[in-house]
């Protein structure tokens, strides 16, 4: 166990994380930075990832760095020399799971005192989390945040070779790091970060504090990454950003926005382009018109609405109204008639009345969502909404969630039923979870389909006739 503190001792500050300065984003080239190698030889690692796609993408980069240092992945968690938890701070229950896991891993440390235990991602960006680790969780050796993954080699060198504890979390605005090595989880579908951070400051959300200022990657870096993926045989990319529709707004001398990026990608030889997450405030009609070009631009949009009531939206600082949201949805159905829409909804936001909740139910029906992630509001220290008066009981919130889920599930079923009897294109992911003789994959509209077929089809796009639709999945037969 690392006992002494190293020169790396920087705690997070929510106050600093809130600041946004007008400053050109610094682009760091990892190749210029990476000069210590080889000390992972004969050592193994395991990473446990919690939370959203941004974390999954970060884990791929962390793995890339570890392999570049000659670490190899351990088959079993209990045999690893290094365990890293890449964490999520968006809701309290996600955090509780991580604290539970840290408790469980204490036993591993007893069995193997040389085990290095680290925590990274969004949770360390919170003051209260780092304070809790400092006060109560001495078996954690390494703590770093979302802004300094590229410094992992020197942190590990310190923890492993000098046996000193590293705690370094930056709360400044963040840079863009290019050329990080990467071990991609999937050999056909890839995440492509197009921007980092978030400047929206929705009043319930911790992300702008944990992931810093919004900063876009330069188009040439994104397009060349996509070209490399094409050359490597990738079929599908998902563009990642907290608000992809504001891509490029931070460029000072470049007039290039999300619609330009989509248009450029439309002309490239990648079979499928998806993106997440969209913000309704910045999603304009012109972008919808680009999506209408179809081709590799998939007819599936995840468009978080959060609430269907204007007063609640205002207090959430979402900067759009129910009416403008419906206008956007109408554009989508007009220009991309086959589109599938999904959304995120929070119930029990502080002060939400039953009538306001009813407005959300109404909006869900109006927008014909074919799926939704539904959440009970979770108080996040340091965000404005944490100070709002919250008189709704937990039972009431749970009841609202259940009523909402009933309606959302009806939408899922309508969304799969409409493909019954139709031929859909499926990118074959692998064998179905329940039966190892059945293949499974996703359609252009992002619906899961199971069908019989040979394993050689994994990684290809096949045509499937949908014979039966259920709420969560569809069944079919290969036609070609
Ligand atoms: N409580 C509940 N849900 C939240 N989300 C973000 N912050 C909170 C919170 N404090 C939800 C939003 C967002 C999704 C990723 O998580 O719906 O779109
Ligand atoms: Fe959070 Fe709002 Fe930013 Fe999404 S847009 S990450 S909900 S602050």
Describe the structure.
By secondary structure, this protein is of the alpha/beta class. The chain folds into 3 domains: 4-168, Methylthiotransferase, N-terminal domain (Rossmann fold); 186-417, pyruvate-formate lyase- activating enzyme; 423-478, OB fold (Dihydrolipoamide Acetyltransferase, E2P). The chain has 14 helices and 22 strands. It has helices spanning 14-18, 30-33, 53-68, 92-111, 127-136, 152-161, 207-210, 219-231, 258-266, 285-291, 310-315, 322-335, 354-367, 394-417, and strands at residues 4-10, 27-29, 44-49, 72-73, 82-87, 116-121, 142-144, 164-168, 176-178, 189-193, 195-196, 215-216, 236-240, 272-276, 300-302, 340-347, 372-376, 423-431, 438-443, 448-452, 461-469, 474-478. The strands form 6 sheets. It has a 7-stranded parallel beta sheet with strand order 1-8-7-6-5-3-4, sandwiched between helices. β13, α9 (258-266) and β14 (272-276) form a beta-alpha-beta unit. The longest helix is centred in the last third of the chain and has 24 residues, at 394-417. The protein is globular and about 65 Å long. The model has no long low-confidence stretch (mean pLDDT 95). It binds 5'-deoxyadenosine (5AD) and iron/sulfur cluster.
């Amino acid at each position: 166990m690392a006992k002494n503190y190293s020169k790396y001792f920087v705690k997070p500050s929510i106050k600093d994380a809130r600041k946004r300065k007008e400053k050109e984003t610094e682009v760091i080239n990892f190749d210029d930075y990476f000069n210590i190698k080889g000390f992972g030889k004969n050592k193994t690692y395991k990473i446990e990832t919690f939370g959203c796609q941004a974390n999954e993408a970060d884990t791929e980069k962390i793995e890339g760095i570890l392999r570049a240092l000659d670490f190899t992945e351990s088959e079993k968690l209990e045999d690893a020399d290094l365990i890293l938890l890449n964490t999520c701070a968006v809701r309290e229950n996600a955090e509780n799971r991580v604290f539970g896991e840290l408790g469980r891993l204490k036993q591993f440390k007893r069995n193997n005192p040389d085990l290095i235990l680290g925590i990274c991602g969004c949770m360390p960006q919170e003051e209260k989390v780092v304070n809790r680790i400092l006060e109560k969780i001495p078996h954690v050796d390494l703590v770093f945040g979302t802004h300094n993954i590229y410094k992992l080699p020197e942190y590990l060198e310190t923890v492993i070779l000098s046996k000193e504890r590293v705690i370094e979390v930056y709360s400044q605005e963040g840079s863009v790091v290019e050329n990080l090595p990467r071990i991609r989880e999937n050999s056909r579908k890839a995440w492509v970060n197009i921007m980092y951070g978030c400047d929206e400051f929705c009043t319930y959300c911790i992300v702008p504090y944990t992931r810093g200022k919004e900063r876009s990657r330069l188009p040439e870096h994104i397009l060349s990454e996509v070209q490399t993926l094409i050359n490597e045989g990738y079929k599908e990319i998902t563009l990642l950003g907290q608000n992809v529709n504001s891509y490029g707004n931070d460029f000072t001398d470049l007039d290039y926005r999300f619609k330009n990026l989509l248009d450029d990608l439309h002309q490239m030889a990648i079979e499928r382009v998806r993106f997440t997450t969209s913000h309704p405030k910045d999603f304009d009609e012109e972008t919808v018109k680009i999506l209408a070009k179809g081709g590799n631009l998939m007819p599936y949009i995840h468009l978080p609405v959060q609430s269907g009531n204007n007063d609640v939206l205002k207090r959430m600082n979402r900067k759009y109204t129910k009416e403008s949201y419906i206008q956007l949805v109408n554009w989508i159905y007009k220009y991309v008639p086959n589109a599938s829409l999904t959304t995120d909804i929070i119930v029990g936001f502080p002060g939400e009345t039953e009538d306001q909740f009813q407005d959300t139910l109404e909006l869900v029906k109006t927008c014909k969502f074919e799926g939704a992630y539904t959440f009970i509001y979770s108080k996040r220290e340091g965000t404005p909404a944490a100070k709002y008066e919250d008189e709704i009981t937990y039972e009431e919130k749970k009841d609202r969630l259940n009523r909402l889920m009933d309606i959302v599930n009806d939408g899922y079923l309508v969304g799969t039923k409409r493909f019954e009897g139709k031929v859909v294109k499926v990118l074959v992911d692998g064998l179905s979870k329940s039966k190892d003789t059945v293949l499974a994959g996703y359609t252009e509209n992002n619906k899961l389909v199971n069908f019989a077929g040979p394993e050689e089809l994994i990684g290809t796009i096949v045509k499937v006739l949908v014979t039966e639709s259920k709420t969560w999945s569809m069944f079919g037969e290969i036609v070609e």
